[in-house]
Structures are given as C-alpha cells and as structure tokens.
Amino acid sequence: MSALRSLLLLLLSLCPGPGPGLGSEAKVTRSCIETRQVLGARGYSLSLLPPALISGEHLRICPQEYTCCSSEIEQRLTWDTEATFRGLVEENGSFLVHTLASRHRKFDEIFREMLLSSEHSLALLFHRSFGHLYSQHAPVFSGLFSRLRDYYERSGEGLDDALVDFWAQLLERLFPLLHPQYIFSPDYLFCLTRLASSADDSLKPFGDIPRRLYLQITRALVAARAFIQGLETGRDVVSEALKVPMSEGCKRAVMRLTGCPLCRGVPSLPPCRGFCFNVANGCLRNQGLDPDWEAYLDALLLLAEKLQGSFSFELAARSIGLKISEALMYLQDNSVAVSAQVFQQCGNPERILARTRRAPPPQEEVGRFWTPPAAAGAAAAAAPAGAGAGAGAGAEEERPTTTASTSMNRLVWELRERLGRARGFWAGLPTTVCGDPRMAADISQEAAPCWTGAGRGRYLSPVVGISPTEQLDNPEMEKEDSGSDLQTRRRRLQLRAATTRMKVAALGRDLELEDWDEDASGSGEGQHYADDWMAGAAAVAPPARLPRPPRRDVSGGRGGGVLVRHNQGRSRTGGTSVGFHTQPILILFLSALALLGPR
Q: Keyword annotations for this protein (predicted)?
C-alpha cells in the first residue's frame, strides 16, 4: 500500500499545473497591489479598492472574472477613460481650431484696418487743407466707404448698389459745375442719373470706368468676405466636431480598452494596437469630415493666393482713386457731347438771370473742374509758396507705405504652411490617438503580448476602416442609432457651402447676390486684374450694366438735388472698419474741391 501511495504522489507531481491562459496573470498572486498603487495616485480612495482579486460577477463592462474593481470603481473608471479619450481628440485638434481662429482674427483686423486708416487719412488731409469746404462734400466719399464696410460686414447691400449710388452722387455734384449758369432742379438731376444708369447705356458720362471699377473692387471685396466667412465656418465646424458627445457604445469600448486592464490587476499591460484602432475608428467615425475637409482646404488656400495676388485688397484700393480720376477726366473731355445728350433727353435747364458772380463767357459755357497732372504741376510751380501746402501734402501721401500689405503676405504664407500640415487630419486622427502610450502599445512592441480586451495575448480580430460600411463589421462596437450621423452631415454641409462660396469668390463672384453678372468674372481667373489699374493698361471688358438709379426725394434747390439712399443717415454700430489706401483719391479730390471754392 505504501508503494502505491508513493506512485500516486509521483504521478501528481508530474501533472502540469494551470498554464498562462486567460486571467492567469492575476491568479498567480491574486493581488491588486499594482492596481491600488496606480488608482491611489489618481486620487481613488484605497478603501474602495480590494487588496486582492474578488469575484467579478457584478461587473457590467469588463470581463466578469476575478477583478480588482467594485461596481463603483468600474463606473468611475468609465468616466475617467472617456475624459482621457476626449481630451486626446481635442488636444490633437486644438492646433486646427487655434490656426483657423487666429487667422480669422488677424485677416479681419487687416481688412478693417485698411478701410479705417484709408478713410481717416483722407478726412484728415482734406479737413486740414479745405476745412468747411471739404465737409460739404465729404459724404460723397465717406458714404462709399460706409457702404463698402456694410458689405464686408455682411449687413449691407450688394456692391453694385453702393457703386451706382456713388457715381450718381458724383455726377450730381460735377454736372452743375460744368454749367454754373444754370439751375438744376431735383427732378432734372433725377432725370440725369436715370439717363446715366439706363439699361441701353445711352449716356456714359464716365465712359466704361464705372464698370471696370465695379469689376476690380467686386473681386477684391467678394474674395475678402468669402475668405473671412470660410475661416469662421472652418473654425466653428472643427470646434464642434472635436467636442461631439461619445455614444454609450463608444464609452464602453474605451473602458474595455484602457480601464479593464486595471480591473484585471495588470495596469502595466498595454492595450493591443489593433484593439485600439478598432475602438478609435468606431468612436471617431462620426467626427471625421473627409472628403469635404480636403476640398475645403483647397478652396481656402486658393482664395488666400488670390488675395495675395490678382485679387489683392491693396491693388483694388489703389484702383479706386485712379479710376475716379480717370472718370473725371473722361467727363471733362467729353463734357460737350455728354451735356448735349442730357439737354436733349431731359430738356434745357433754367438759366440763372441774376448772378452774384461773373458769368462765364459764352465760349466757356461748358466749365472745367479737373486739371491734368502736367498742368497741375505747372500751376503749382507758378503758385505762391503758401498756396501749395495742400497739394504738397497730397503728393506726399500718394503712394503710402503701411505694414498692412506686409502683414497680409506673411499671414497668407503662414496659413498655407499650417493648413498644409492639416491635410489628412481626420483620416489620421485614429492613428494619432492610438499613438499615445495610454491608449495602445508602442509600434516597436507590436509582437509582444498585450491587452486584448479579455486578457494577455494577441489581438486576432481584423482592423476595420472608418467608413460606415466597414464599421458594420467592427467587433468592438455595438449597433447604435444614427442620430449623431445627422450632426456629421450638418457639419459637412456647412463645409460644402463654405467651399462653394470660396470657389465662386475665386472667380470674382458673390454667391449671395440674386443676379449674377455673367461678365463680372470674365474668364474667371482675374488674369487682367493686377494690370488693369496701372496707367496705360488695356481696359478690362466691363460687366453687365449697373443696377437701377437710386431713389430720391424731390426736394432740393439751386445747383443740385439730394439723393435719398438706403443706408444714408442710419447709425452704424458695427465693429471698427477697415479702409482702402485712398491716397490716389487725394490727388483727384484736391483738384475737384479747388473748383468748388469761391470763383
């Protein structure tokens, strides 16, 4: 009998014990020391953590085997792992939000600075040179800048209405100067402006210059406004996408990925990379914005290059003064023909019988209000020393040097560089998240054992993509409703709308205008824009006719009526506005105002 007992003991000693199967890493010691150390450092109460493994039948997410977690600890870990995952997503996308937000703010400041500084410099110079005389006629130009600001700030009417009103006011002021021996009633001036803006273009007092100016300024302002709107939309969409609430299925999957190793007593065992990819792809499937994101970046960078080149805000600003001066020269050179046509269509105005100043000789019945540059230079040379102060000031400020254009070029360059790194951001976000050591094992340790969701081993499930079709086969995600998908579609539609608006703006058009001007964009690439404002350049083909003449009240008096326009006299509480570089306008207006003084 003793021999039989010895044989049995020998056989028992040779029998293999339990292998390193599932859960064996915890059964070796049945200890939770490592888990208690990790969670204690995170602020968990040690009184809630068992010193050794306990039965896991109470667990709802982690495997119901031996565990170091009570129900309360499992719930708290679920919240913590959710916060960690969300923090990683927002942290990796924060550079995008910051880039779009800061560029939106900087570009907006530059555009507003251009408009504001330009208008202020014009007003300062003219007040210093002409005092009350300028104040009488300043609303013609300040009104134009106000309308441009209204358009840029998305609160005003279209640029076509703003410009047609400006040319109508200018014509009303200048035409009586050509005929100081006549009285022009409000009705007569209304006939004049209606004739000048008629559909058949029967009267072109300024030639094709208003149309060319409309083309140039429209391209620049439309591009600037669409660009600012595009940056704003991108900022808001990205910020929303990074903060989408996690679904219950995603929360459970993230807990299984990074929280359950703690409950199993193996917090140092990293999650498998394939496991992390499936969880991240499932959780981020409704946050990605591809392929609309790439199209949005293309349109944004294209428009930025346009603003830096052919649709330059600075070029458009300079063209305003030059085109207006050309228009004055055209009206003066063709004043006889223009006046004859106006008198034929609107009738003969009433002649002044009793004059307080000397009437011009008959041969000078058509007056002059503009002095060509050569003649102006000769007159300045012959004038007394004290008489040229205003002209000298205008000459000094003709070609301003500001930091706005330099800042613009630098901002465009920085934007191009930063957004170039943002390509593929949404497609690569799961990889970026799983690159964090808290989320998955390092790629260099991919062959080593890792946490599979059930224990130590290798993750054998296939890694699925992020597309909705592929996600149907995701082994780590549950079937869920598509409520969050509706929000994703909404964000993508916002990106598509901004992309379309910017692409149309790159063709020189405003998507929000009710009537598109087929000739406004020409061939669409603005290839003649940069040269059009330069002296001696060929004229750009004008767009279709400008809109209706402005409304007016029929109250007025000698020498001209008063137009009543849509925005005149209303208070403007918008932000600070930016103005054009208007120094070229100064030369024009100095000469024009000289005529408006006492004869």
A: Cell membrane, Glycoprotein, GPI-anchor, Heparan sulfate, Lipoprotein, Membrane, Proteoglycan, Signal
